[in-house]
Write a structure and sequence with these properties.
The protein has four helices and six strands. The protein starts with 8 loop residues before the first strand and ends in a 22-residue tail after the last helix.
Length: 176
């Protein structure tokens, strides 16, 4: 079922084009009406009232620079799977039941931090056991690290948000 147009996600950029937030279409229309933003991209959907018809914005830019303190990306099982593209970081397989593995086991001083947690399939996690990858004779496909804030925004990009891609460094910017 297609989402209602007013509930579309909208990317907000600061005055310097830095992504700062994702909001709903209703809030974006209010910001447009109050003339606090410039609309850079639109969805094909419209919202209608008795006397007005507005195209739903997809990307908006604040007219005034706003100091915005970013919250950290929450360290969770879901965010680790997203970072690792739902792929075992030892064998590279995707379509298996996955777990979160401590690269350095907790009883050897390993902590619950981005740099020590990785995605592993059940087979690799059991094989590695309570050892470091080196002790288990295994290698990581990628070194675990904390994802950037732009990575967080990139997770919102679906087929309808294709116009966000240049603003999130996923496509080159096209100059007119």
């Amino acid at each position: 079922m297609e989402p209602v147009a007013i509930n579309q996600k909208v990317l907000i950029l600061n005055q310097n084009y830095q992504p700062i937030m994702v909001i709903g279409g209703k809030r974006a229309i209010i910001l447009m009406y109050l003339e606090k933003v410039d609309v850079l991209e639109h969805y094909s959907d419209y919202v209608h009232s008795q006397s007005l018809s507005l195209q739903i914005p997809s990307v908006i830019k604040l007219k005034k620079y706003t100091r915005y303190l970013r919250n950290n990306i929450t360290l969770s099982r879901k965010s680790i799977f997203l970072r690792d593209n739902h792929t075992c970081q030892y064998c590279g397989k995707k379509h298996l039941p996955l777990t979160v593995d401590h690269v350095v086991p907790k009883d050897k001083g390993g902590k619950d931090i981005w740099e020590n947690l990785t995605t592993a399939c059940l087979i690799c996690n059991n094989w590695k056991g309570n050892k470091t990858p080196r002790e288990g004779g295994m290698m990581l496909l990628s070194i675990p690290k904390k994802p950037s804030f732009v990575f967080y925004f990139q997770q919102f990009v679906k087929s309808k948000q294709h116009s966000w891609r240049p603003y999130l460094f996923m496509d080159p910017v096209k100059y007119d």
